[in-house]
Structures are given as structure tokens and as C-alpha cells.
Predict the 3D structure of the following.
Amino acid sequence: MNGHQPVEYELVPQPPQPSTRVRRDDETVVLSTCPRCLGPMAQLDGEAAPAKGIRFPRRHTAVPAWEPDVVECQCGLPHPGRPENAPAWGCGAFWNELATGG
Amino acid sequence: MADRAGPALPTRDDLRWARLARELPFEELEAARKQAEQWRNAIGGLTALLGVAALVRGRNDLTSIPSNWRVSVALVLAAAFLSLLLAFALSAYASFGRPGVRIRLNGSALRRWSGARTRQIGRLVPVAAAAAALGIVLTGVAAFLTWFAPATAGPSRPYAVRTATGQQCGELIGVDRGRMVLRTGPNSLWSTPLAEVISISEVKAC
């Protein structure tokens, strides 16, 4: 895989990283590269109904066009020491998004 | 080029919110179905509120109390029903939320929504409890009014009594020692042995 480093799994915060958002059909895909293992990542962005939805107060439910989020490595490549039940398939790195449009 | 970003290094709590937000699409169908089911049950429970009227059993027939008392009972009962309805609606709203709301798949958005929802529940529940208490008190007041309202003296229908010697008309007082007694005037009573009564029939007027 292009430059991917099979580093040991560890939950470690990383400095903000840029992401790119591209449209695919009616969805937005966030493309980024993990700064720790250099694995390429693509994950869906969008909106969803929270478990128990309510539209109150309204300012909290307006869906913004974009908002920076925490991204977790989801390179999908093997990393030694990754727990079976780890929610993300990656090296454990996570960082704040620094978006480059979308 | 966007120039927005969070703090330099995210915390594990930030990561946890982001993970929860990303799980939402996988749960939303089940959540929506559950929410619909809860609303269905709540609407079923709403009909139980109508049973509130059945609590007012002081008199089986409210028409036997004076009209001003009757109007008071009706108003108090209506207020009780509205209070209980409000309590029901607020508690259902607090519990199930409103269907169809969507938020961004984003840890910050989910955290804000969750905080707003928690504050909202904190505001709604005390109001719902107060409305329920008021509804119960008003229902009790309505029952009290029906129990202690004076009975109206209903107009008694006159009866025509036919005997072998003729016919007499008046208000039926009763039977006393084998004799039927009628009130035939303000100060006059008439009686006849039961054995001589051929027929008794209600009439509109004497």
C-alpha cells in the first residue's frame, strides 16, 4: 500500500490534518491520510437522525454545511495490537480535521 | 480553503463523541421504528385520559343536580382534562422527542444536540409533573362537587288511578297499610284500598 506504515495500534492524538470532501452521487466522502501510519482514508459524511430526535431548540438542529470534526484513522490496513472490538479499523491515531473545502 | 479547525489536539472524549456520531446511520432505522412504536403506545394511552370523566361517579346522573353546579362540574372537569392532556403531551415530548430530526454526523453536533436535549428534558419534566398534579386535584374537585351538590326536586309526574267507583288523579305519595295514597291538591290527600285499584297510569297532567 502507498507508504503505509504498519505501526502498532495505539490511541494517540495527532495535530490537525487536512481533509478533502468530494461528492459521490448524493453523498459526501471525506478523503484524508493518516498522519501516523500514512494510510489513505475515505469515510462518508452526512447527517442522521439521533436516537431520539427532537427539533428544539432550533439553533441546535440546523444542519451546517460543514463543521470540523475529530477524524480517527480508518485506513483498513492491519496494525499489530489492534483490539478485536476497536470501533475503527486503523492504527488508533485521531486528529482534528482541517478541511480543504467540499 | 476552509480555515476552521478544532483545538490542536483532540481529547479522547472528543473521539468518543465522534465515534458515537458515526454510529448513528447504522442505528437510525431501528431508532425511528422504536420512536414510532413509542408514539403509538402514547397515543393509545391518551384514550385512557378520557376515562377521567368516569372518576366523577358521585351521582350517576348529573342532570339531577342544579344547573349552576352542573356547569361548575363541567368546567372543572374540562380544566382537569386539559391539564392531564398537557402533562401527557409534555412528558411524551420529553421522553420520545419529535420524529424526523436529523443532525450532522459529527461529534460536536451530537454533543450539542445531546446537551440541548438534556436541558430540555430538565425543563419539560417539572412542568409535566405540575400539570399532572393540577389535573388530579381538579378531578378530585369535580368529584367533590358532584357528591356534595344539592339534589334538585324533580317534578313528579301525576298518576291517574282507576277504581270501581271512578278515577282520581294526583301525585303518587305511596302505599300505606294497604291503601294507595295520592296528593290531589296542595293540602288534600286521597286514598283507596289497593284491592279496589283497577289500573294506575302516568299522565301528563291531571
About this structure: The radius of gyration of chain A is 15 Å. Chain A has no helices and six strands. The longest strand of chain A covers residues 12-24. Chain A touches chain B at residues 11, 13-16, 43-57, 60-61, 63-64, 66-72, 87-88, 94-102 (CB under 8 Å).
